[in-house]
Amino acid sequence: VLLASGERRAALALALALPARGAGGHLRQLTARLETELVRARGVTLRLLGGATSLRVAAVPARLGRDPLAEVTLRDPGVSRHHAVIGADAAGLFIEDAGSRGGVLVAGARATGRFALRGEGELGIGLSTSFRFQATPDGRTVVLRGLSGLDRELVVLAGHDPIDLALAIPGARGLALELAAGGARLVRRPDRPVRVGGHLVGPGCDLLHGDLVEVLGDAPLALEVA
User: Fold this and answer.
1) What integer is the mean pLDDT of 29-56?
2) CA-to-CA separations, 45 to 128, 165, 187, 211, 224, in angstroms, rounded
3) Does the pLDDT of residue 25 top 80, yes or no?
4) Residue 87: partners with Cβ closer than 8 Å, 6 or more residues away
5) What is the Cα–Cα distance from 68 to 58, expressed in whole angstroms?
6) Rounded to an integer, what distance in angstroms lies between the CA atom of residue 97 and that of residue 126?
7) What gap in Å lies between CA 108 and CA 30, rounded to an integer?
8) Lowest mean pLDDT among 7-11, 130-134, 136-140, 168-172
9) Which of 10-19, 160-169, 182-191, 200-209 bottoms out in mean pLDDT, i.e. has the lowest?
10) How far is the C-alpha of 138 from the C-alpha of 126, rounded, in Å?
């Protein structure tokens, strides 16, 4: 019941609490699969089926760089492994250089200290990678859309939980992700039925790598969890 409704973490905790000698082979396989495939990071990639765009959703503070463990991994060799950080303070979201070689560029000039992400603008991450950014009026979320470099098809959605997917995905109204706790949990409004892995889920669903998320209704939408 927990698995079918999307409560995968609760199902895993329950399975791990059972006596080992009483667990059958199927239960052991299921437990191993959940432990391996549960999204445990503060960032997750969603791919829109039928489209070329890749969306990276990350909780702040979100590291940007070539490090595979960064919340937002970039591929351009001109980007440092730990290049920049999107963070938050009392005034809202900001981006700050993390001691990179190429720095963070704003209007072609290297930014020093924290640069507030307000309204719209353009950011350079090193010399080759650039993004167009748009911050929400409440200062809780920012959307970055690739303009140049190897990641020009990448869209980044970074902010505080819950992160509204409709800011970057047309048709995702009423869907959001919670990531700050170190795992990806999809939450939905009652009027947006969602099927994950072939099952209609409850108000929330813990995501697994490889999940197919199907949003039902007049404007159906399908997303794959990378």
Assistant:
1) 90
2) 22, 12, 16, 11, 8
3) no
4) 60, 61, 62, 93, 94, 95, 96, 114
5) 14
6) 10
7) 52
8) 168-172
9) 10-19
10) 28
Helix (H/G/I), strand (E/B), else coil: 203:
coil
Amino acid at 87: G
CA distances from 133 to 59, 73, 83, 141 (A): 16, 17, 17, 10
The burial class, CB within 10 Å (0-12 / 13-18 / 19+), for 127 is middle
**Rounded mean pLDDT, 178-182:** 94
**Is it the case that residue 32 has pLDDT exceeding 70?**
yes
| Closest C-alpha to 194, from 182, 206, 183 | 206
**pTM over the 0.85 mark:** yes
Of 217, 214, 184, give the one whose Cα is nearest residue 200.
Answer: 214
For residue 29, give both structure tokens.
């396989």
